[in-house]
Amino acid sequence: MAASMRNPIVRGRSCGTCTLCCKALEVKVLNKPAGVWCAHCKPGSGCAIYTERPRECGDFYCDYLTNPDLGEEWKPLHSKIVVASELNGARITVYVDPQRPNAWKQEPYYSRLKLWARAAVPHRGQVLACVGGRTYAVFPDRDVDLGFVGDDELIVTSERTTPLGVELDASKIRKDDPLAKTLPSNDGKRAL
Ligand code: SF4
Ligand code: SF4
Questions:
Q1: What is the pTM of this model?
Q2: Domain membership flag for residue 160
Q3: Number of domains in the chain
Q4: Which residues span the domain enclosing 42?
Q5: Of 20, 73, 151, 167, which one has the fewest beta carbons inside 10 Å?
Q6: Is the CB of residue 18 below 6 angstroms from any atom belonging to ligand 1?
Q7: Whose CA is nearest to atom 8 of ligand 1?
Q8: CA-to-CA distance for 176 and 174, rounded, in angstroms?
Q9: 172-188 pLDDT tens trace
Q10: Could you give the CA distance from residue 30 to residue 96 in angstroms, rounded to a whole number?
Q11: Residue of 4, 20, 56, 72 best suited for mutating to test ligand 1, as the one with most atoms within 8 Å of CB
Q12: In a domain, 154, yes or no
């Protein structure tokens, strides 16, 4: 789990019986991959090691809890989607329950993802959908399947010119690739 941007918890909201982040997200320190239940989770109940849970878990608050712009339809228990603002707002990732892999493509969620993708274009921000570790980059006009993105990889957002005009694209690059160091100022590309 990456720490989500921390805003105050929206009044009246709490995790309740939701434990979806303990399934949908990776927990690096526990070697728990995205999309499988954490061995310490009692689904519908909570964390069996709550007082000793990793800091990675304790620091995580999904956007449903902290973003008043997300309505009740985003409640993870029902939507099967965990929204996380990451990298100081440069990226929004929706982590999807693999049992409902297309949940992010349903309405009203998909339209909202496209709105976020449009808003991210000027600063080359990223909107990602992560389904059990498989990652899709969401753009206003299409989605790009990036497959599994390793810890040693970055996601590069870039422009490319097509006969129909400029469109955004996404690809992966290894963190130790010398090109990665030049990307923030290279042809409008951004690596996150
Ligand atoms: S997904 Fe959000 S609401 Fe659900 S348990 Fe995690 S932090 Fe709480
Ligand atoms: S350690 Fe606890 S809080 Fe962290 S993923 Fe596992 S069950 Fe959830």
A1: 0.91
A2: yes
A3: 1
A4: 2-182
A5: 151
A6: yes
A7: 15
A8: 5
A9: 999 888 877 766 544 44
A10: 20
A11: 20
A12: yes
